[in-house]
Design a protein that fits this description.
Structural class: mainly alpha
Number of domains: 1
CATH class: Mainly Alpha
Keywords: Oxidoreductase, Peroxidase
Largest sheet: none
GO molecular function: peroxiredoxin activity
InterPro entries: AhpD-like, AhpD_core, CMD-like
Shape: globular
Protein name: Alkylhydroperoxidase
CATH architecture: Up-down Bundle
CATH superfamily: AhpD-like
Pfam families: CMD (PF02627)
CATH topology: AhpD-like
Oligomer: single chain
Strand content: under 5%
Number of helices: 8
Length: about 160
């Protein structure tokens, strides 16, 4: 399977993606724990059905030391006992922030208050931008039908 578009071969798309990827690197370098970032990125990608991003974030998380048990349970995090309260709050924000059309109100006050108990303002801002970033990345890959399975750890760093 080949992607419909090669974004990096197009001058305009290539320039835009260079800035987009720089924004992603800025998020990675933030004080939000890397494990939380990978779990959130994975959950957003699962909800959106972005195989390329699921491939990438599963491999990146595993390379960073995340266990296969936790990675396999992200899809059912509410019933899993392997996540901290802070991670659970971040995953709840990721879900409501991704399913804005389904929720009607977007992110509920309940979820916002929960996540705000665990993260400071800079981490909260990073979480919100990360959820938005991942939704955009998912859409870029889904629209172009980016194939999954061949991602190499560190490929876009």
């Amino acid at each position: 399977m080949d992607a419909r578009l090669n974004y990096f071969a197009d001058p305009t798309a290539g320039k835009a993606l260079k800035h987009f990827m720089a924004a992603g690197k800025t998020l990675q370098d933030s004080p939000l724990p890397a494990s939380t970032q990978e779990l959130v990125a994975l959950r957003v990608s699962q909800i959106n059905g972005c195989a390329a991003c699921i491939d990438m974030h599963t491999k990146e998380a595993a390379a960073a030391g995340e266990s296969s048990v936790r990675l396999n349970l992200v899809v059912a995090w509410r019933e899993a006992t392997v996540f901290t309260d802070a991670e659970r709050a971040a995953l709840a924000l990721a879900e409501e922030g991704t399913r804005v059309a389904d929720a009607g109100e977007g992110v509920s006050d309940e979820v916002w208050e929960l996540v705000a108990k665990h993260y400071d303002e800079e981490q909260l801002a990073t979480l919100v931008i990360l959820v938005s970033f991942m939704n955009a990345a998912n859409r870029l890959n889904i629209i172009a039908r980016q194939p999954a399975g061949n991602y190499q750890v560190g490929q876009f760093h």
